[in-house]
């Protein structure tokens, strides 16, 4: 009973998060250029599972991530994309939707007043559930490009933020999370490259 008697001794807590973000795609090929960032949104529930006390936690959860980016394919010749032949220099706008499962270690400071700060580092796992694309030449207009996107993606996440105690078990939280994807997002056999997804997220949440 004592383990559940106070906010400081809870074994875990949940947070509703709603996170606006900027995301972009990068390629290791000189013929594939990053063009511009994509404004997206990530929302869902995260859980902090405390490791002995509330200074250390394992953070996980399940969120819906709407992300993407723009790439210009300067291949020097026509290339095949989503079953269409597109000219060199075509820009593709990717709109991607993932189920996201983070897994990170969170370190929390002692309270000062009604505030504390935190830092986290870990992995982000993405499972693609929908992909669409638009090409600058007009051939593709929000068309399905599921065959061009790999189902699973993984990256590193690192971030920091603040928590403000509202009393009881409730608090508000805000922070910044950087996600650095390190697996290949795309699966186009006609373009030999490795494309990674990256994002800068502004984390907003309600802890209960």
UniProtKB/TrEMBL annotation:
The protein's name: Outer membrane protein beta-barrel domain-containing protein
InterPro entries: Beta-barrel_OMP_2
Superkingdom to which the source organism belongs: Bacteria
Outer membrane protein beta-barrel domain mapped to chain residues: 9-186
Pfam families per the UniProt record, alphabetical: OMP_b-brl_2
């Amino acid at each position: 009973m004592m383990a559940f008697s106070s906010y400081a001794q809870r074994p875990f807590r949940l947070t509703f998060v709603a996170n606006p973000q900027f995301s972009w795609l990068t390629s290791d090929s000189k013929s594939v250029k990053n063009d511009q960032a994509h404004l997206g949104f990530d929302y869902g529930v995260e859980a902090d599972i405390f490791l002995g006390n509330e200074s250390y936690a394992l953070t996980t959860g399940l969120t819906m991530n709407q992300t993407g980016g723009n790439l210009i394919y300067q291949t020097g010749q026509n290339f095949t994309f989503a079953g269409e032949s597109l000219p060199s220099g075509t820009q593709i706008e990717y709109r991607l939707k993932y189920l996201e499962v983070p897994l990170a270690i969170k370190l929390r400071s002692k309270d000062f007043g009604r505030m504390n700060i935190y830092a986290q580092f870990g992995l982000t796992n993405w499972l693609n559930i929908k992909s669409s694309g638009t090409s600058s030449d007009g051939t593709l207009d929000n068309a399905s490009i599921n065959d061009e996107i790999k189902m699973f993606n993984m990256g590193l996440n690192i971030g920091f933020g603040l928590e403000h105690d509202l009393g009881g078990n409730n608090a508000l939280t805000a922070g910044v999370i950087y996600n650095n994807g390190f697996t290949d997002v795309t699966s186009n056999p006609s373009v030999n490259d490795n494309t990674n997804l990256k994002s800068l997220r502004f984390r907003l949440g309600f802890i209960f």
